């Protein structure tokens, strides 16, 4: 009988793409991948070019493990826009320059359209023209919406003279494929990221501890709070809302509001924390969005990298608020409609975008009309609390359509809340869902803590030794092991 020291086939399988277990930050394999990578990265810390190449290889391998051979799409996109951006920069003929930019935008959006929206538009044609076009067997590449927007912002900034394109392909490839943010963002601007590539690798004590805090708190939000509420409550309510009372449906909406925040902001925190350990500073993507007192403020706090991208590359080029009230409202509506479409090829995302476009237009009108009459009241705490209450529930209305598989299910849920609330079953609801309600309470409590509360936490964390941090992480793993489900919960924004 033979007792091999290791199974070579099993070891090889760990390095191959597994569709059922894509490589994410919460994957066990990621720990080994990251330890191996950061060791090599540190050894090459004084050699920027070699360090960049190692980072590119690691990032492409990470993406391969997350999405298979779609990694080739990232390389092709990088080659195309690296060449086009440099051609745009050196071109002196303004018409040729503009044509190159248009070609770059059409190329990027064309690829995105093919993979993400082809079957959606085929279904529209079939429905409205009584056609019988068979849908294509198209798989959506992971992260394509994120790196497509990064490509477009890069070439547009070069065209506008805001940024000089890099001349080393490896630097552009790293900008596009940087593995902490490649799969689910944040959407990074070249002007913020590329100047950091060749900086001396240095991680201060503050960077290390803040990175640890961001990673651990992000994992806690995603794996403990979001996953628990999703599996044990939100998902099955939204799957069949007609089977549940309006009370359960309403609480599921509140549950989803904290789920999507903890899920996506948690992943963003992990990405930003890992980047901090690698010597890169990526701006925050969420700033306590549910504390917003109006919808405009909400979009300055929610998915900041996307909302600022839509503002700079869609809303302002459309004319922004420079061409009169009606045009401003139209521009807001178009921008948010495109923001909804960016999330996915589904009418529910378009409705979600339309709701926010309409809401922003109404708020703009209200702000203008009430600025004089309510100038003193606007500053009061009561007015702000009322604004937070209204804004939060308006956002929750949008989440109903964002989460629902189709328009029918969204209306069914709203109908249950309106006509079959079941207030008399409140105590039964609490008894049945007490653990979920506790987890929701923890989620909202963490969200509502003022930013100034976190600074003392970081100061206390810096008193921990390396062993103390390892024990803290081990305690988190024990908690995760106790609460985790048999079926892994994929991050919400992985589908975008």
Rg over CA atoms, rounded to whole Å, is 24 Å
What is the N-to-C succession of helices and strands? HHHHHHHHHHHHHHHHHHHHH
Q: What count of helical segments does DSSP give?
A: 21
**How much beta, percentage-wise?**
under 5%
Number of strands: 0
Helix content, binned percent: over 70%
- Characterize the overall form: globular
Given as residue ranges, the uncertain stretches (5+ residues, pLDDT < 50) are none
Indicate the mean pLDDT.
89
Describe the protein's architecture and organization.
The structure is a single chain. The chain folds into 2 domains: 176 residues, no CATH class; 291 residues, no CATH class. 71% of the residues lie in helices and 0% in strands. It is built from 21 helices and no strands. The longest helix is centred in the N-terminal third of the chain and has 36 residues. The model has no long low-confidence stretch (mean pLDDT 89).
